[in-house]
Amino acid sequence: MCPFEYHRPKTVAEALELLDRGVPLAGGTELTPRRDEVPAVVDLQELGLDYIELRDDIFVIGAAAKLQAMVENEELLPSALREACRLEASLNLRNMATLGGTIMSADGRSPVVTVLLAMEALVVLEPGSEAVSLEELLEQRDQANHRRLITELKLKRPEILRYEQVSRAPTDRPIVCVAVARLPSEGSEKGYRVVLGGLGSTPIRIQKAETSLAEEEDINAAAEAARQAYASADDVWASGEYRSHTAGVLVKRLTTEMIS
Ligand SMILES: Cc1cc2nc3c(=O)[nH]c(=O)nc-3n(C[C@H](O)[C@H](O)[C@H](O)COP(=O)(O)OP(=O)(O)OC[C@H]3O[C@@H](n4cnc5c(N)ncnc54)[C@H](O)[C@@H]3O)c2cc1C
Fold first, then answer.
1. Rounded to the nearest whole angstrom, what is the distance from the C-alpha of residue 91 to the centroid of ligand 1?
2. Does domain 1-105+120-157 fall into CATH 1.10.10.10?
3. What pLDDT does 2 receive?
4. From the CA of 129, how far away is ligand 1's center (Å)?
5. Quick one: which atom of ligand 1 is closest to the CA of 104?
6. Which of 174, 221, 182 minimizes the C-alpha distance to 200?
7. Which residue among 75, 86, 154, 162 sits deepest, i.e. has the most Cβ atoms within 10 Å of its Cβ?
8. How many angstroms separate the alpha carbon of residue 224 from the centre of ligand 1?
């Protein structure tokens, strides 16, 4: 007998009512192994949240879009985002795992979250249709009372977007990864985002590097800021010294391509 309640709503409104009783079930790749912990699941597969669109230079991607559908969407999505989706998980997992589920369960070694942060992703939450920055959502997501449903993500279309990672084997999660983006700017100054991943609970923005690029296009200062950010980034996978050096090399390489 199924040990928990299973619900498959047809509309977002129905799903929101059911979230009083249980948790969202997307691809199930992270949730299913810990199904004993949840009293009920609310399956999102019939809500029509699997679209991938470009509207007025903003990518709008439904929370239930599969990672593999993003990999295959050559027509719309930037190659760096597609590559990050490919590197997130194996093919079988990518065919099940969704963008929303990945955001809610990813750690600091997530290629996808690293690139989404560089694209200044906004996450739309229901109820309320509130758009919060992905950074804010990542801070809130572990709170026990986080009962909101991610319905879609909005991503700025970057002028340039690059991603690179170093891992122990080609299919491993990264020890260090970097995403850099040049985003459309409102004033005369260019808007840069530099995001470093490979450790901890989430990838981190390197704001000092962003300022050095925006104000002076200073690649060396940007690389130094990345080195400092990972100076004590030790764990079982790599020493702080190795991570720090690699972060500097990747930031320098990607920003040189971007600025020259
Ligand atoms: C064999 C295997 C290996 C794996 N290896 C790794 C790994 O190396 N690194 C890693 O990070 N992960 C790994 N995972 C975990 C998992 O594959 C990913 O994190 C995946 O991207 C989760 O997506 P999902 O759609 O399957 O989410 P689900 O499992 O359906 O849900 C994950 C969480 O997100 C919540 N959620 C889902 N959708 C929404 C939404 N729209 N709004 C609000 N909350 C939502 C769920 O309630 C749940 O708490 C692995 C999983 C398996 C089975």
1. 14
2. no
3. 63
4. 23
5. 34
6. 174
7. 162
8. 34
